[in-house]
Amino acid sequence: MTISVLDRQHAADVQPAPRVPLGVLHDAAATVDQDLLPCRINDAELWFAESPTDVEHAKNLCTDCPVQALCLDGALERREPWGVWGGELFLQGVVIPRKRPRGRPRKNQDGGAAA
Ligand code: SF4
């Protein structure tokens, strides 16, 4: 048995069944004016952007969303693999504080790579 098989089996063991399905969020979003949902009136790619600046912009836009709390609860329950949901950035099912820019790690002042 390879490590990847073990990882998949372990992941299947620990992931709970989603209690807030995406359909619930869609139903809730359908009851509010679509013009009040930032991810509907802006470019949706912003919520899955590569640029840390764009990701922070999406997080800020979510703060005005009328379904933010439900969106965040659902994303936590579903362990969203990535993207901005409910004003938080998700990566591999957990909230992370910020997106790291692409590229090599910064070097220390002495010329070595940062740990
Ligand atoms: S809180 Fe959810 S539904 Fe609202 S704008 Fe953000 S991602 Fe979209």
TrEMBL record:
[4Fe-4S] cluster binds at residues 39, 62, 65, 71. PROSITE patterns: 4FE4S_WBL (PS51674). GO terms for biological process: cell redox homeostasis; negative regulation of DNA-templated transcription. GO terms for molecular function: 4 iron, 4 sulfur cluster binding; dinitrosyl-iron complex binding; DNA binding; metal ion binding; protein-disulfide reductase [NAD(P)H] activity. This is Transcriptional regulator WhiB. Keywords: 4Fe-4S, Cytoplasm, Disulfide bond, DNA-binding, Iron, Iron-sulfur, Metal-binding, Transcription, Transcription regulation. Acts as a transcriptional regulator. Probably redox-responsive. The apo- but not holo-form probably binds DNA. One of its GO terms (cellular component) is cytoplasm. Belongs to the WhiB family. InterPro entries: 4FE4S_WBL, Whib. It is found in: Cytoplasm. Its cofactor is [4Fe-4S] cluster. Binds 1 [4Fe-4S] cluster per subunit. Following nitrosylation of the [4Fe-4S] cluster binds 1 [4Fe-8(NO)] cluster per subunit. Its main location: cytoplasm. It holds the Pfam family Whib. Upon Fe-S cluster removal intramolecular disulfide bonds are formed. The Fe-S cluster can be nitrosylated by nitric oxide (NO). Residues 38-95 form the 4Fe-4S Wbl-type domain. Coiled coil: none annotated. PANTHER family: TRANSCRIPTIONAL REGULATOR WHIB7-RELATED (PTHR38839:SF2), TRANSCRIPTIONAL REGULATOR WHID-RELATED (PTHR38839).
